[in-house]
Write a structure and sequence with these properties.
alpha/beta; Pantoate--beta-alanine Ligase, Chain: A,domain 2; ATP binding; single chain; 9 helices; pantoate-beta-alanine ligase activity; ATP-binding; 2 domains; Rossmann fold; three-stranded antiparallel sheet; globular
């Protein structure tokens, strides 16, 4: 595995490999790798000749009261895991390398961001599309792999690629879960023992909601959401921030549930905010 911290070196390495006709798969991450990230790499390994992973905690996507400084970091651990799973090139730039000067251009996302997590994280997805655009231009991958745990992010990035005609295919990969259903996340390490025991209720509630939708596939979505919010046991520790239904990937409200939809939830614990979702297709009644 090759490790590089500079944009120019990474470009030169990839250019040489592409001259040999190799396809490139890309897995962008913010590090503190877990099985979800490694699953993205495994799928990329199956489909591409060369797998590039980036580890970069992007300051542009953290708000003033969010956890940039406390976001978990352990490069030695990440390096070992990346090597073990078969990453070919590991890109580990500094903030100064990625953003050496004040930008002359800023990016603003217009759609798919005023709901779910984006509703309370103004500017977050502007930071996401900025760093993803830069990484796509640096790596020039054939396919980029993203986990569907953050389905809103996948929807926004797909919109970015479609709107700006990036020559990269976005490959969404299903959420990797613990045995009890909890979605794997770098933030799970910040749960207390009691919170960790309670957290699987997020996915359990989403599955209940999915069953309710499948039984009543033309029901007003707000009514189902309210029903499930009433059933959600906030327990002793977590606070339900939202549980909502939208079309996917458009992330628009629906009066009637039909086509591809997302049911998504967020729960705030003391030191960690967890998100999860299920995506399904609702068939129209004849």
């Amino acid at each position: 595995m090759k490790i590089t911290t500079t944009i120019n070196e990474l470009k030169n390495i990839i250019r040489a490999e592409k001259e040999n006709g190799l396809s490139v798969g890309f897995v962008p991450t913010m590090g503190y790798l877990h099985e979800g990230h490694l699953t993205l790499v495994s799928q990329a390994k199956q489909e591409q000749d060369l797998v590039v992973m980036s580890i970069f905690v992007n300051p542009l996507q953290f708000g003033p009261n969010e956890d940039f400084d406390s976001y978990p970091r352990d490069f030695e651990r990440d390096e070992a895991l990346a090597r073990e799973v078969g990453v070919d090139i590991l890109f580990y730039p500094s903030v100064e390398e990625m953003y050496p000067k004040e930008p002359t251009i800023t990016m603003t996302v217009q759609k798919r961001v005023n709901v779910l997590c984006g509703k309370k994280r103004e500017g977050h997805f502007d930071g996401v599309v900025t760093v993803v655009s830069k990484l796509f231009n640096i790596v020039e991958p054939d396919v980029a792999y993203f986990g569907l745990k953050d389905a809103q992010q996948v929807a926004v990035i797909q919109g970015l690629v479609d709107d700006l005609s990036f020559s990269v295919e976005i490959r969404p990969v299903p959420t990797v879960r613990e045995d009890d259903g909890l979605a794997k996340s770098s933030r799970n390490v910040r749960l207390t023992e009691d919170e960790r025991k309670e957290a699987p209720i997020i996915y359990q509630t989403l599955l209940k909601m999915q069953k309710q939708v499948q039984k009543n596939n033309m029901v007003i979505s707000d009514e189902i959401a309210q029903l499930m919010m009433n059933e959600f046991d906030e327990g002793k520790h977590g606070t339900l921030e939202y549980i909502e239904i939208y079309s996917y990937p458009e992330l628009e409200s629906m009066k009637e549930l039909k086509g591809k939809i997302i049911i998504a939830a967020a729960v705030q614990y003391k030191n960690a905010r967890l998100i999860d979702n299920v995506i399904l297709t609702v068939e129209e009644n004849e």
